[in-house]
Specification:
Blueprint lengths: L5 H23 L8 H12 L12 H11 L24 H9 L13 H6 L1 H18 L9 E7 L10 E7 L1 H6 L1
Antiparallel strand pairs: 1-2
């Protein structure tokens, strides 16, 4: 390509791609993915060069829980005082059209603790946008966020290839789709 022979380089890339696909097909054809998923993933990792992250000795769900609770807890936190500036009437902050667009354009994400998947809200956006607009505006006008939207599942993802302690894991929070939409 650097010598200006772009068409020849592209043809070579296509041939190499076909050879790689053929080799991978040969390596994977003997594995029945419906019977032996473990063998399939082992072969996949071998082909891609990825390492399997196994359970590390001494690192348990409880130790990760304690670690995240220690670093994510603010001991001096105090609940904010109630808002005196809000009125009981609902202020229109979120329009119905805006809510429909938010729901209709939701991207696929992991299912949150409330077990409400994004695809469900996206498919039902024509039905859900009115009540959710009311709920969002009520939440904003009263300054109260539903407690279900505050829950999150923490998924530990290794920061390094061979983690040995809880601090070697990055906490990824999976929050409610509606909480994310409200943000």
């Amino acid at each position: 390509m650097h010598a200006g022979r772009v068409k020849e380089a592209e043809a070579l890339a296509v041939c190499i791609g076909k050879d790689i696909a053929s080799c991978n097909k040969t390596c994977l054809c003997h594995i029945d993915s419906k019977v032996s998923t473990k063998d399939m993933w082992t072969a996949y990792r071998q082909l891609t060069g990825r390492k399997h992250v196994s359970i590390i000795d001494g690192i348990t769900a409880e130790s990760l829980n304690e670690h995240y609770a220690a670093i994510l807890t603010d001991t001096s936190y105090q609940l904010p005082p109630g808002k005196h500036t809000t009125t009981p009437s609902i202020t229109r902050v979120v329009s119905e059209w805006h809510m429909f667009n938010i729901l209709h354009n939701l991207i696929a994400t992991a299912t949150s603790p409330d077990q409400l998947p994004a695809w469900f809200l996206r498919l039902g956006s024509t039905l859900f946008y009115k009540p959710l607009t009311l709920l969002f505006n009520l939440s904003i006008s009263t300054g109260v966020v539903p407690h279900q939207w505050k829950d999150a599942s923490i998924s530990p993802v290794p920061k390094i290839s061979s983690p040995v302690s809880p601090s070697d894991f990055r906490p990824i929070s999976i929050t409610s789709v509606l909480s994310w939409a409200m943000e």
